[in-house]
Amino acid sequence: MRTLVLLALVGLGAQLVDGSLGMAYGVTSTTLLLAIGTNPAAASATVHLAEIGTTLASGASHWRFGNVDWKVVLKIGVPGAIGAFAGATFLSWLSTEIAKPLMSLLLLGLGVYVLLRFTFRGLRTDKLGQPLRKRFLTPLGLVAGFMDATGGGGWGPVGTPAILASGRMEPRKVIGSIDTSEFFVAVAASLGFLVGLGTAGIDFAWVVALLIGGLIAAPIAAYLVRIFPPRVLGSLVGGIIIFTNTRTLVTSDFVSLSPGVINTIYALIALAWAAAVVHSVREHRKAVAEAATEARRVARAAKEEAPA
């Protein structure tokens, strides 16, 4: 029972992050399942089965708040489903001994990307309104879908920053569209795992626990995307993913390190993580102050130009 409650809380927290940042539900949930000993394919299958419900609820919530571009959803969701099915069948084929460190390595890479992307680059907005082309979204969907299934997460960490980096959509619509299109990915990945694994190793009570937490968080996250600074949240989540998956790798059978070296690695990660969060908070405050200054300048200029 304690495990189920913990999983429900993880599902709630992961969906709060995913729905407000456009990434990290799968990465966060899969990381925890790996940490408590679940085999990689079963962990990814469990998370994707839960995501069928959470992504449907999240998409509906984002649609209600006007955060969804349906053209983008279809253009990236269909190739994403194809990539996810391929990735699920590939992971099902790998042995557990190879799959666990491989998945942790993929998750670690995604965590580093999330941390660096949101800590140092923030969000680009200089090309808002320009259309996103199919030749960009189709390969992006294929790669992100494959990464999502094989890494237990990756749809958001790959898709959201790529579209944000284009600067052609409002951040809230990028997040809403990615979360909504993830429904196609979750269904396709789940089918792929069921074909490759059957139901072996999948605990459906865990699926339901993750689902319940995600369903509670979905409407809250769709609202928070309007008010919570994604730059800070991205740095926080990236650090969690890096720390947890580094722990999995340095304690695996493929790595032989002394306790002193392992503790040093943990300490360095913690220091870098803390510095990244502090930098993100400072940059966010700076951006808010600059925006306020610009708003006052525009207001003064408008007042001066107004007829007496």
TrEMBL record:
Listed InterPro entries: TM_pro_TauE-like (IPR002781), TSUP/Inactive_protease-like (IPR051598)
PANTHER family: MEMBRANE TRANSPORTER PROTEIN MJ0441-RELATED, MEMBRANE TRANSPORTER PROTEIN YTNM-RELATED
Compartment list: Cell membrane; Membrane
Coiled coil: none
Protein name: Probable membrane transporter protein
Tree of life domain: Bacteria
One Pfam family in the UniProt entry: TauE
Predominant location category: membrane
Signal peptide: none
Family statement: Belongs to the 4-toluene sulfonate uptake permease (TSUP) (TC 2.A.102) family.
UniProt organism field: Isoptericola hypogeus
UniProt KW keywords: Cell membrane, Membrane, Transmembrane, Transmembrane helix
TM regions (residue ranges): 72-94, 101-120, 140-164, 176-198, 204-225, 232-250, 256-278
Keyword 4Fe-4S listed: no
